[in-house]
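Researcher: Sequence recovery benchmark, item below. Answer with residues only.
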């Protein structure tokens, strides 16, 4: 398999077939092995001030990656440019109304899918722009276009994909519109 990111970004959907819960996705050797396929040999995982993991090499460029999980699905996105990804299992939850009123009352909210689109878009943007959850209520979204524009100057966009009962939001800089390839794998 070609792990080159020159032509398109790569999104991996990893299905946990057991109920193992890790303190961090980065504690799983299979996840680290997948990340290593895209990185130079001398890379290490570090964390930004906001706690976001990133790959670092003193001598080589490291691609960007973003992680998210919901229920038993873990998703990892890889790109040569800043990228953020979020995945959520779509289901009714008791806190939805409270979150909507507090963080994104200006977004159109007609149904459950609208809530999850607003939520996952913001989560993915926070990861792509290396922001913190404390900034959640300050994030503005233009939902009038097919690709939602998001950010201070709407300089990022959101692309949504449905996977079984999950919603995936992918956030990238607006100037980078290359394709996306999705891959499935299982973590045993």
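Model:
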């Amino acid at each position: 398999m070609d792990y080159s990111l020159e032509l398109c970004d790569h999104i991996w959907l990893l299905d946990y077939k057991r109920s193992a819960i890790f303190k961090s996705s980065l504690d799983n050797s299979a996840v680290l092995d997948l990340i290593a396929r895209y990185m130079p040999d001398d890379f290490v995982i570090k964390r930004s001030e906001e706690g976001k993991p990133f790959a670092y090499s003193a001598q080589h460029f490291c691609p960007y990656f973003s992680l998210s999980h919901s229920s038993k699905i873990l998703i990892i996105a890889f790109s040569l440019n800043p990228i953020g990804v979020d995945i959520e299992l779509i289901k009714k939850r008791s806190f939805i109304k409270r979150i909507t009123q507090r963080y994104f009352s200006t977004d159109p909210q007609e149904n459950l899918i609208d809530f999850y689109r607003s939520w996952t878009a913001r989560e993915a943007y926070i990861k792509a722009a290396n922001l913190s959850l404390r900034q959640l209520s300050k994030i503005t979204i233009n939902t009038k276009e097919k690709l939602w524009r998001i950010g201070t100057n709407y300089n990022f966009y959101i692309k949504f994909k449905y996977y079984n009962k999950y919603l995936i939001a992918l956030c990238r800089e607006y100037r980078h519109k290359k394709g996306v390839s999705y891959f499935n794998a299982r973590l045993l």
